[in-house]
From TrEMBL:
<dbReference type="GO" id="GO:0045290">
    <property type="term" value="F:D-arabinose 1-dehydrogenase [NAD(P)+] activity"/>
</dbReference>
<feature type="domain" description="NADP-dependent oxidoreductase">
    <location>
        <begin position="18"/>
        <end position="305"/>
    </location>
</feature>
<dbReference type="Pfam" id="PF00248">
    <property type="entry name" value="Aldo_ket_red"/>
</dbReference>
<dbReference type="InterPro" id="IPR023210">
    <property type="entry name" value="NADP_OxRdtase_dom"/>
</dbReference>
<dbReference type="GO" id="GO:0070485">
    <property type="term" value="P:dehydro-D-arabinono-1,4-lactone biosynthetic process"/>
</dbReference>
<dbReference type="GO" id="GO:0005829">
    <property type="term" value="C:cytosol"/>
</dbReference>
<protein>
    <submittedName>
        <fullName>Aldo/keto reductase family-domain-containing protein</fullName>
    </submittedName>
</protein>
<dbReference type="InterPro" id="IPR036812">
    <property type="entry name" value="NAD(P)_OxRdtase_dom_sf"/>
</dbReference>
<keyword id="KW-0560">Oxidoreductase</keyword>
<dbReference type="InterPro" id="IPR020471">
    <property type="entry name" value="AKR"/>
</dbReference>
Length: 366
């Protein structure tokens, strides 16, 4: 059994409740990601107190733009590297291309270090593990542990939409490497539309020694907002079927008539549930909110500050704003009533006919 060197302090004592999502600087969700956009958002986010960024080598060109902005002297002198957390991912290269081999993991981490202009990464996730075999994911984790020993990576994790596969991998990592995953990332399942992460995942992750869970896409990849899902230069990639989109549109129309914002309500709901789950200092649920513009940043942080008194520091037991929760509960309930049968609807991941052994789509047998 492989042994690893002592790891740093628990990530639950370091990671803040709210994290800036770097997917907003990608072609997937933004038509023209550029350095001016990233520079403005990053500067304003840090001025507001944000100190953690989550991105991926798959979110082209997020890493390159973030690295350029973070390394510019006007920024780096004010915010040196040890004052913020950088998280990225390995393994997913394109929508239908994956490489979890140890050689690729090593290459990808070193490339991310170069792109982000840093000597170390705080967290590296294996990206979308449902598209590969469990053995491939375990080998990738082993490669990341080597890089932990080299001082290039501090904490290791895995990301997936599939809660069951994240739980299975967390158990296998504990058995094979005699240490837990530090963190897992799940998306769109601690939201107003789907709360399966809370009901089906958190207790299991905690029992397996995972100290942090990142809840990404609290707006269900932009579904829970007015104006429809975000569409970048790569087209509409959102997995929501027409019926769910229509229900979300009806919910947005309803809350707009009430003078409220569906996006703000959805974000406050996710942060409230994450706070409830972060009941002790050894287990933290953090919310990753993707931001593409200054307007989105201001709107999101306004919603965050309305419900969480200390949203940008690591867990310290600060209370939730219960008055805001009481005001939001009737609207949350109404939104879920409007969603109706689409409440807790889950997407198919990986897509039907994806073969994890061959890591490609295969033709169905007739």
């Amino acid at each position: 059994m492989m042994k690893v060197l002592d790891k740093p302090a628990s990530l639950a004592n370091i990671l803040p409740p709210v994290i800036l999502g770097g997917a907003g600087f990608s072609y997937q969700v933004y038509p023209d990601p550029n350095i001016s956009q990233v520079r403005q958002v990053l500067q304003h986010a840090f001025d507001l107190g944000m100190r953690a960024i989550d991105t991926s080598s798959y979110y082209e060109p997020s890493e390159q733009l973030l690295g350029q902005a973070l390394s510019e002297s006007v920024f780096s002198k004010r915010y040196p590297r040890d004052k913020y957390i950088l998280m990225t991912k390995v393994g997913r290269i394109a929508p239908d291309r994956f490489d979890y081999s140890p050689s690729w993991v090593q290459f990808s981490v070193n490339r991310s270090l170069e792109r982000l202009h840093t000597s170390y990464l705080d967290v590296v996730f294996c990206h979308d593990i449902e598209y590969v075999t469990e053995e491939a994911a375990l080998e990738a984790i082993g490669a990341l542990l080597e890089m932990v020993r080299e001082g290039k990576v501090r904490y290791i994790g895995a990301s997936s939409y599939r809660i069951d596969l994240l739980l299975r991998l967390a158990r296998s990592v504990l058995e094979r490497y005699d240490r837990p995953l530090d963190v897992v990332q799940n998306w769109a399942q601690m939201t107003l539309q789907n709360n399966r992460l809370e009901t089906d995942g958190l207790a299991g992750f905690r029992d397996l020694g995972v100290s942090c869970v990142c809840n990404a896409s609290p707006l269900t990849l932009g579904l829970l907002r007015s104006g429809g899902v975000p569409v970048g230069s790569l087209g509409d990639f959102h997995p929501a079927p027409a019926g769910l989109r229509a229900a979300a549109h009806r919910a947005a129309e309803y809350v707009t008539i009430q003078g409220k914002s569906l996006a703000a309500l959805a974000l406050r709901y996710a942060i409230w549930r994450a706070h409830v789950a972060s009941s002790t200092s050894d287990f933290q649920v953090s919310t990753i909110t993707g931001i593409s513009s200054i307007n989105e940043l201001v709107e999101n942080m306004s919603a965050v500050n309305q419900i969480l008194q200390s949203p940008l520091r690591c867990y310290d037991g600060s209370p939730i704003n219960l008055d805001q929760v009481e005001r939001d509960i009737p609207l949350w309930n109404k939104i879920q009533d409007i969603l109706g049968t689409w409440l807790n609807f889950s997407f198919t991941s990986p897509e039907e006919n994806w073969d994890v052994e061959q890591q490609r789509m295969i033709k169905p047998k007739l």
